[in-house]
């Protein structure tokens, strides 16, 4: 093997190592940053719209069970790019915003949630609102929060089938100036290490 071939071979190996390391680092760093958007309740520095009803401070926006945040995935494709994705069906409407049409099934869900919170007269749901001995509602923090939530579910259940609900854009994944900065920083660091 000639010296020129040796140099080219070494250069290819360094380039391949640079590409592999950079893609791996991009996958890890950006996946972590996209996850942090749920803690920030913002897409980096762009704050998410607050909920109109049940603005409960005990949990963050887009976080009820944590399923959406835990569903974020990333994979290196064809040694040329990194693809970020989620398999949660409602992720796109939250990330991009839009409108959804009220269906009979949605109305039923909202009624069930309302009945679960308030308790039903036939006893099929255990009442969660706390009552005094005389049957009136207690005026405590828990009841006030549940009452706000119950009012939200009742309002949603009373919407006519076919009406529209506007879901505000609460982007948590995608292009941003901060993403570009992170990409540049990773590439520069890996370039220094490789060469």
List the helices and strands and how they pair.
Elements: H1 3-40, E1 42-43, E2 46-47, H2 67-70, E3 73-77, E4 81-85, H3 91-96, E5 98-101, H4 104-118, H5 141-157, E6 164-167, H6 177-194
Antiparallel strand pairs: 1-2, 3-4, 5-6
Estimate percent helicity.
Answer: 40-55%
Please tell me how large the radius of gyration is. 25 Å
Count of DSSP E strands?
A: 6
Unreliable stretches covering 5 or more consecutive residues: none
Overall SS class: mainly alpha
Continuous helix count: 6
Average pLDDT figure: 85
Main-sheet strand order equals: 1-2
Distance between the termini: 22 Å
Residues in β-strands, percent: 5-15%
In one word, what is the shape?
A: elongated
Order of helices and strands: HEEHEEHEHHEH
**Largest sheet, described in full?**
2 strands, antiparallel
Description:
With 195 residues, the protein is mainly alpha-helical. It has helices spanning 3-40, 67-70, 91-96, 104-118, 141-157, 177-194, and strands spanning 42-43, 46-47, 73-77, 81-85, 98-101, 164-167. A hairpin with a 2-residue loop joins strand 1 and strand 2. The protein is elongated, with a radius of gyration of 25 Å.
């Amino acid at each position: 093997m000639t010296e020129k071939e040796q140099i080219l071979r070494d250069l290819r190996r360094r380039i391949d190592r640079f590409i592999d390391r950079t893609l791996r680092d991009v996958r890890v760093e950006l996946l972590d940053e996209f996850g942090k958007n749920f803690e920030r309740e913002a897409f980096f520095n762009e704050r998410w719209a607050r909920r109109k009803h049940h603005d409960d401070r005990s949990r963050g926006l887009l976080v009820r069970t944590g399923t959406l945040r835990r569903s974020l995935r990333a994979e290196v494709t064809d040694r040329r790019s990194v693809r970020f994705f989620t398999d949660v069906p409602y992720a796109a409407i939250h990330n991009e915003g839009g409108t959804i049409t009220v269906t009979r099934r949605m109305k039923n869900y909202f009624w069930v949630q309302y009945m679960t919170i308030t308790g039903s007269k036939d006893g099929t749901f255990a009442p969660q609102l706390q009552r005094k001995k005389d049957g009136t509602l207690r005026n405590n923090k828990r009841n006030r929060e549940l009452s706000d939530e119950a009012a939200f579910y009742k309002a949603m259940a009373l919407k006519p089938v076919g009406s529209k609900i506007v879901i505000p854009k609460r982007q948590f994944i995608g292009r941003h100036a901060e993403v570009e900065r992170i990409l540049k920083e990773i590439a520069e660091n890996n370039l220094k290490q490789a060469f």
